[in-house]
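Teaching assistant's notes for section 4

Start the section by putting this record on the projector. Ask students to predict, before seeing the second block, whether Protein LplC will look compact or extended. Collect guesses on the board.
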Amino acid sequence: MRKVTKGMRIFQLFNVIFLGLVGSVSIIPIVNVWAQSFSGANAILNGKVLLWPVNFTLINYDYVLHNETIWRAFAISIFLASVGTMINLVMTSSLAYPLSRPEYRGSRVILLFIMFTMIFSAPLVPVYLWIKQLQLLDTLWVLIIPGAISAFNFFVMRSFFQSIPSELIDSGRMDGCGEARILWGIVLPLTKPVMATIGLFYAVNHWNNYTSAVYFINDRKLYPLQVKVQEIISNASMVMQEGVSIDISQMTPEGIKMAVVLVSALPMIIVYPFLQRYFVKGLLIGSIKS
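Reveal the predicted structure now:
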C-alpha cells in the first residue's frame, strides 16, 4: 500500500478547498434564484433575499402554472426535445455506420465535407433564404431538420462504431443479414452508452435552442420555452398582464423571472442524473482500440 505523505495530504486539502470554492461560486447564483422565486414582492424589491426565501410565498409559481402561454411554450420544447432527438439519433447513426466501415468507398471524401462544416459555418442570410425556399419558416420543423446531424456527435458515434469488432458484422452478413438489418439488429443494441450520451447532447441543444427560433419563427404561438423565458425576462411587467386571473399586486417581475427560469431548467436537472453514468463511457469507449 502506498504511503500517504505530508505533501500529498496538503495537496488533497488544497484540492478540497479549491473545488469547494469553485462549487460554491457555481451554486450560489442558483440558490439565489431559487430563494427569490419563493419570496414576497417587498423582500425582493428591498434586496433582502440572498440564500433563503423571505416572506415565503407560492404566488410566483401560481402565476407560472396558470399562464397558458408558458405551458404552450413548455409543450413545444418537450416536442422538440423528444421528437427532434429521435430524428437526430436516427439520422446520425444512419450516416455514422456506413462511414465507419473501411469497405465503403468514397467515405474519406464525405468525411472531409463533414469536417468542413465544423470549421466553416454557413452565413445567416443564405441559410435563411434556403429555409424560406424549403417553406420551413414559421414551422417547428425548422428547429429540427436543418440541424438533424451534428458533425461533432457524428464523429463521436462513428468512433464508437469503429470499435465494434468487424468479425461481429461479418458474421451477420454470413447469416444473410442486409446492412440495415446489421445496423438495427446487431450494431445499435450495443450502442446504449453512446446513444444515451449523444441523445442527451441533442436533447439539451433542443431544449436550450433560442437563436434559431428567433431567426426563423415569427408566430408567438410557436415560440419554444427559451424564447418565452427571454420575453419574460426582458419585459416581465407586460407578460404579467397576459390574461392570468391572479392578483398581480402581490407579485414582482423579478419573482416571476426567477420562477420561470427554474421551471425551464427543471426537466434537464431531473434527466441528467439518470444519464450521467453513460457520459464517460459513451465518450471514451470509441477511443479504445484493441
